[in-house]
Retinoic acid receptor responder protein 2 (Gouania willdenowi), 169 residues
Amino acid sequence: MVSGSDRIMVASLLLLCSLGASVFTSSAQEAYDGLPETFRKGVDLALEKLSSHSGIQHHFLFFKSVAQSDIQPGFDVIFIYHHFFLKATKCPKGTTDSAGCHFRNDRPLIDCAVCYKTFRGDIEQEPKPYIHCVHKPSLTEEMKTTRVNHCNTLAYNSGSPTLLASIGN
């Protein structure tokens, strides 16, 4: 038999758990919303590419930035480099409203690096945007080097200094 005080304790625990889950979801959205628009577009590209893989079963959300840089050579052109993590949610792949999607803690983070050129705020198709995402435990030093080299080449092809030498946000 359950006493009245036990019921109150169980109800309180359930309330705390649901509030905690809401905080995780809202902080994910706040982290994404806190990014400048040009960086959010790169996160969206990575999420779109990740969702296109048949092996992905869950909906992912932006988790946090690791590094950001941009080079603004002028004439409304910006070269973007963004290294960030995506995290699986409990929602199935294809979910359109992420408001109720809570992070899973039983899946590894997805480590992503993207670099691309924007003109007047829109991502240019040339040079082709570079998107590299891999489960964090699988990321090797060689992969990291390849990312950096590819992104630096993107900026040098346009006569700009290296993306990773730029001091970004």
Q: What stands out?
A: The chain has a mean pLDDT of 82. The longest strand covers residues 58-74. The two ends are 58 Å apart (CA to CA). Residues 91 and 101 are 5 Å apart (CA to CA).
